[in-house]
Amino acid sequence: MNRFALSLSAAIARITESALGPYQSAVVRIGFSATWLLFLLRELPHRRELYGPDGPWSWDLAEQLIAGNGAFTALIWSDGRIWFENVYGLAVLSSVLLLLGWRTRTMSVLFMVGVLSLQNRSIFMGDGGDNVLHLMCVYLVFTRCGQVWSLDARRARREHEARARGERVVDRVGPALWIVLGLMLIAVTGAGRLLEGDPFIPALLWAVWLGLGVWWTVGRLARTDQPRILLDVIGNIVHNGALLVIMAEACLIYATAGWYKIQGTRWQDGTAVYYPLHLDYFSPWPALADALSSSATMVLLVTYGTVVVQVAFPFTLFNRRVKNVLLAAMMTEHAVIAVVLGLPFFSLAMIAADAVFLPTPFLRRVGGRVARACERLTAGRDGPAPVPEPRAPEGAEERHVGFTA
User: Distance between CA 24 and CA 145 in Å, rounded?
Assistant: First the structure.
């Protein structure tokens, strides 16, 4: 009984005292923001036909559909071309800034607004990858995805070092950004736009905005550490819960896909992979598709292997070695799908979702190699590489990050 109580106490302490998976959440942030950014840039010449006033799905049809399903989209607030261009530009800008990790909490909210606004404006333009991105953009709002590999982490580290030297640190950008976005939120709510449809997204926008205000106020005015510690605990619990939901969502996607495949006769006889390879819509490289489908044994192995990996993956999470093998197999499969079937953004979205299961030592090694490569490039242009900055104590980034936390 005492051993159980100690284990339970240790688990509770671990969940409340730290935001788990900092590298995994950073990779998920980078992966999904990069996927959406690349998609927006690729479709930049066709943006008005896909989501704007020139599309076959007119503004009137979108208004009727949204009146029925209550989905959130800022593009329904006006059918003007200028408004559409502003929303599209906001989606691109928020994706870039979230990718870089600048004011990650605020940018994750704006990123969600951009994704939902465009996707819900023309719901028939999406595919499976868009559905994953649709869900994950909401989950990212609840995570502390800027703990590492972000401009926020670098700024927090420098602020911590400045405070250690006795210097005063004043953040003017955060409060200014909070005031501007707050005025916009008040104006939109006052105009009645946020009161239409499902109240979840409007409530989330207000909750995040008010939460950031409380966080800043406590950080500046609290005379003891207890209020800051309490906010840290709440933030850690929300982050860890959201990370668990992301993992569960990824497992649900694979389990559902795998069990549905088992029911199909083409998957049962081992020929399912052959057919998409010979559809013109999914054959950007016909010669490559013909080469892959020319071997009946290869088609059989890939078909059965896909089903086995998808069904088995959720059951391997408690065996690290088996999980890593299947994870590598799934990522490789998505990379092949991106090339052979011409579905790069679907594959990138799935790889980004899979990244939440990557082992921390592997991610740290990759991050270290990227950092050394950047230092060598910097040294080649500007002389000797700078001396690496000392890392702040664990948790310092989150305690002092202010409006980014």
Answer: 8
Element (H, E) at 298: helix 296-312
- How high is the pLDDT of residue 124? 85
Q: In angstroms, rounded to a whole number, what is the distance separating the alpha carbons of residues 17 and 15?
A: 6
**Distance from CA of residue 339 to its chain's centroid?**
23
Interval 151-184: pLDDT, tens: 999 999 999 999 889 888 888 999 999 999 999 9
Q: Which two three-digit tokens encode residue 188?
A: 């939109």
pTM for this entry:
0.91
Q: How far apart are CA 153 and CA 273, in angstroms?
A: 44
For residue 67, the number of C-alpha atoms closer than 13 Å in the C-beta half-sphere is 6
Q: Considering only 52-56, 117-121, 385-389, which range has the smallest mean pLDDT?
A: 385-389
For the stretch 229-253, pLDDT in tens is 999 999 999 999 999 999 999 999 9
Q: What are the C-alpha distances in Å from 148 to residues 22, 254, 306, 381, 402?
A: 6, 28, 33, 26, 15
Buried b (16+ CB within 10 A) or exposed e, 314-349: bebeeeeeebeebbeebbebbeebbebbebbbbbbb
Rounded to the nearest 5 percent, the helix, strand and coil shares of the chain are 75, 0, 25
What contacts 24+ positions apart, CB below 8 Å, involve 176-180? 177/103, 177/106, 177/403, 178/106, 178/209, 178/212, 178/213, 178/216, 178/403
Q: What is the pLDDT of residues 271-323, one digit of tens each?
A: 999 999 888 888 888 888 888 888 999 999 999 999 999 999 999 988 999 99
Structure tokens at 164: 């250690």
SS3 category, 343: coil
Phi, psi torsion values for 148, nearest 5 degrees: -135, 165
What gap in Å lies between CA 193 and CA 179, rounded to an integer?
20
Torsion over CA: 249, 252, 254, 257 (sign)? negative
Q: Compute the distance between CA of residue 136 and CA of residue 349 in angstroms, rounded to an integer.
A: 9
For 76-92, what is the mean pLDDT? 95
